[in-house]
Design brief:
Helices cover about 35% and strands about 30% of the residues. By secondary structure, it is α+β, with helices and mostly antiparallel strands. The chain has one domain: 3-Layer(aba) Sandwich (Aminopeptidase). Strands 1-2-3-6-7-9-8 form a 7-stranded mixed sheet, with helices on both faces. Strand 6, helix 6 and strand 7 form a beta-alpha-beta unit. The protein is globular. Bound molecules: coenzyme A. Coenzyme A binds next to strand 6 and helix 6.
């Protein structure tokens, strides 16, 4: 599958918002209506506010959107009783006084119904590669994501470590070091 990763901000600069909206509205993800809704209804607003950056994987032959991910920043509180090793705690650069670590956020990530199994893992690599570039520019080696119970095992298989559960939002905080 031959694809290119396009930043949503580039598309918004080169085409009208209506055209971009029409294009992203064709993205479908049956496994996660929430993520489909995010791309359809929130990604452009988040981009315009500068709160995150969304990247689209576009099929070179069909022009279909095969998947997307959104990157941003979100610091993370790591309570003292979090079951992680001292070494990990140190590598995360957690502030001694506040218990907060600066972190990149892999905010959203989904492959479309028209992509093949395994394309999600390719998207994760593409996202991490961009965060490695960001790390070279501004520092910060922690990447965080918040996910539902369904995909905790999946992300553990990709090297992420479970840190905490936000029971209010019912989301699992997971991290990987870059
Ligand atoms: C998670 C995802 C990126 C993985 O993509 P991938 O590496 O190409 O792998 P697959 O899509 O084949 O999924 C891998 C496994 O996770 C399971 N899985 C994926 N998304 C799931 C979800 N939202 N709920 C439950 N199980 C899910 C699949 O059933 C599959 O299990 P199997 O190997 O037993 O068949 C992709 O399935 C996806 O886009 N899911 C919907 C969006 C999502 O849940 N994103 C993660 C939250 S941030």
């Amino acid at each position: 599958m031959s694809f290119v990763i396009l930043p949503l901000s580039d598309l918004l600069e080169s085409s009208s918002e209506d055209l971009v909206q029409g294009r992203i509205s064709r993205f479908s993800c049956e496994r996660s209506p929430e993520l489909e809704d995010y791309l359809h209804n929130r990604a452009i607003m988040m981009e315009k506010k500068g709160m995150s950056r969304t990247y689209l994987a576009i099929d070179r032959d069909t022009n279909d959107i095969l998947g997307f991910f959104s990157l941003g920043m979100k610091c993370m509180r790591v309570p003292d009783n979090t079951p992680i090793s001292k070494t990990m705690r140190k590598r995360m650069n957690i502030d001694d006084e506040t218990g907060v670590a600066q972190s990149f956020l892999l905010g959203q990530l989904a492959r479309s119904d028209c992509s093949k199994t395994g394309f999600g893992a390719i998207l994760i690599d593409e996202a991490i590669n961009r965060l490695i570039q960001a790390n070279r520019i501004v520092g910060c080696r922690l990447v965080r994501l918040d996910c539902s119970d369904d995909v905790v095992d999946y992300y553990e298989g990709k090297g992420f470590k479970f840190i905490n559960k936000n029971s209010q939002a019912n989301l699992n905080q997971m991290v990987i070091m870059i």
